[in-house]
Amino acid sequence: MQDDLAIAVQRQKLVQPATGDRGALQQFVDAVLAFSDEPGQANLERYLAASRSLEEARLSGLESLVGLRA
Question: What's the pTM?
Answer without folding.
Answer: 0.61
